[in-house]
Amino acid sequence: MNTPWAEQGAARTWAVGALCRAIGDALSARFNPVTVRGEIAGFTRAASGHCYFTLKDDAGQLRCAMFRRAAGLLDFLPREGDLVEVRGRLAVYEPRGELQMVVESLRQAGQGNLFEQFVRLKAKLEAEGLFEAGRKRALPAMPRAIGVVTSLGAAALHDVVTALSRRVPHIPVVLAPASVQGTQAPAELARALRQLARLDGGPTPIDVILLVRGGGSMEDLWAFNDEQLARVIAASPIPVVSGVGHETDFTIADFVADLRAPTPTAAAELCAPPRQDWLDALDRLEGDLADAAHRHLDTQAQRLDRCGQRLGRPSGLVGRQQMLLASLSQRMRHGVAARLQREGQAVAALDAAFARGVERLGQRQHERLARAQLRLRLLDPALVLQRGYAWLEDEGGTAITSAAALATGQAVRATLADGQADLTVRAVRPGQG
């Protein structure tokens, strides 16, 4: 009887691991690299830095792994339900025999192209120096008027007006309406900024401009990522505060503006210190000014009293001046006498020092002369002759200092300590040295 095994004959029998590798190789050759679009589910980041998640849509799901190197290049934090596009390689995870995708790059779908445009424009303007902190200006401590650029129907306008009315109701607010969403919005925003800038020299000069809008998606906020609008903000002669979206939203306008606020309300608060703070400061200054005025008046009153006392009794002033003159005269006499005494003592000391110096000099010269006489006596040849030596010289009076200068029969004269003797050389015996 035939069995399924017999029917297969010599069909190849695969090892599990070998079959998984073969399937993986076939997938790699057929599909890789591959780009897939789907929704993130079950996103986790391991302690090693690797990320694991499932990519799904209505028709299926695919397990994904993103290793630490690729995960480190992400410019946003993936969240549950995000619609994304992933690029990578299909493979089989052999220990489980499961299909998975090794993700090499991940970007948000839908706004992916917008985000790439945002990144390119940001890099371009940053390279031109439009984001540098050195070109940004500080906000005025007390603006004379505040300009606001936003939509008439925006909730941000209500938030800004409410904050300004509460904190600085005395400061005028000038509104330049403009669309904050749509294709026409960038041009309208730029035109509104230029309109407020022209009011700088008007009767109520505007010292700061608020560019505000409520939160939304990247598409909703895209008008604030326009290059021409960014250049108008950078060229504005009036400081611009950007309050676009929520705290986590960033636009090109935020980077170019002189100051970025996390919300429209925060933008209003940054340029409008509370009115009560200024009133309190004014009260403190008023108190300081009153105290200073009272102290000055007290000082001048005391000075006037002293002047009046001096004018009322001029004889007392003359008497005090005479006493001062007498005191100075006495001090002068004592000073001259003391000076003369000190000078006399100094002269006497110098005289004594001179006498001692002359005496010490004479003693030193006498001792020096004695030492010279002693050395001279020690060099006297007579002292040498007294010790038994003799002085020899030939008939011409030349001193004989060597036996080699003598000859047998030669007449010589010897000088001794107490006289001279004429001698004849009988024999010459040169020394052994």
From TrEMBL:
Keyword Cell membrane listed: no
InterPro entries: Exonuc_VII_L, Exonuc_VII_lsu_C, OB-fold_nuc-bd_dom
Record note on quaternary structure: Heterooligomer composed of large and small subunits.
Exonuclease VII large subunit C-terminal domain segment(s): 130-423
Compartments in which it is found: Cytoplasm
GO molecular function: exodeoxyribonuclease VII activity; nucleic acid binding
Record organism: Paracidovorax wautersii
Keyword check for Nuclease: yes
UniProt-recorded name of the protein: Exodeoxyribonuclease 7 large subunit
